[in-house]
From TrEMBL:
Belongs to the COQ4 family. It comes from Sphaerulina musiva (strain SO2202). Its cofactor is Zn(2+). Lyase that catalyzes the C1-decarboxylation of 4-hydroxy-3-methoxy-5-(all-trans-polyprenyl)benzoic acid into 2-methoxy-6-(all-trans-polyprenyl)phenol during ubiquinone biosynthesis. This is 4-hydroxy-3-methoxy-5-polyprenylbenzoate decarboxylase. The keyword rRNA-binding does not apply. Keywords: Lyase, Membrane, Metal-binding, Mitochondrion, Mitochondrion inner membrane, Ubiquinone biosynthesis, Zinc.
Length: 198
């Protein structure tokens, strides 16, 4: 952060993102494609708030503790501008992106949770979301240096372009399409079973 002008300003100003410092009601009135509106809509859709993240503990150095707190508080902005949900697949994609983007060790360690994925989810993660995360994490500007409070009115597409982040495929839509396909297959099997019995 010290090597980036906005990172230095963030370290100097030490802004916080909480429900006391940011008005979600106001953000909900922002233009549809703004970062602020996307953030508020994402929080609403996922059922979380700016206060959902735990406070940083066990880090003695005040500056390091602030950097970790800032990371936690801005993590949901990364979700919001990519549209990735908090379900485990989306979280793993964000963690892989953050690891390649920031090299924060804890984000890399989080990837061990890939073992919790079902086979179809694991395949989708390795085929689609991990390549997206690696490609974008490596080429994008470091998101830890984004002064999010100053970007709330920015068009989310403009910010993604400036940061060098491609929009990933819509995970919720992919999961929905798979559920619908399985439902159709099940109905076809039941229909064939009924015909055979008749």
């Amino acid at each position: 952060m010290l090597a980036h002008p906005d990172g230095r300003r963030i370290l100097r100003d030490r802004p916080r993102i909480t429900s006391q410092t940011i008005s979600l009601e106001k953000l909900r009135t922002f233009p549809e494609n703004s970062v602020g509106r996307a953030y508020a809509a994402w929080l609403d859709r996922e059922g979380v708030t700016p206060d959902t993240r735990d406070q940083v503990r066990y880090i003695d150095d005040p500056e390091e503790a602030y950097v970790m707190q800032r990371y936690r508080e801005t993590h949901d902005f990364t979700h919001a501008i990519t549209g990735l949900p908090v379900i485990i697949e989306g979280e793993l994609a964000i963690k892989a992106f953050e690891f390649t983007n920031t090299l924060l060790p804890m984000t890399g360690l989080s990837l061990a949770a890939v073992v919790r994925l079902k086979a179809v989810e694991r395949k989708r993660f390795f085929d689609i979301y991990l390549p997206w995360a690696l490609r974008n994490g490596l080429k994008a500007e470091e998101v830890v240096n984004v002064y999010w409070e100053e970007e709330l009115e920015t068009d989310v597409g403009v910010l993604r372009n400036r940061l060098g982040i491609e929009m990933p495929p819509d995970l919720r839509e992919m999961r929905k399409a798979l559920r619908e396909e399985r439902k159709r297959e099940r109905m076809e099997r039941e229909k064939l079973g009924a015909i055979k019995e008749a």
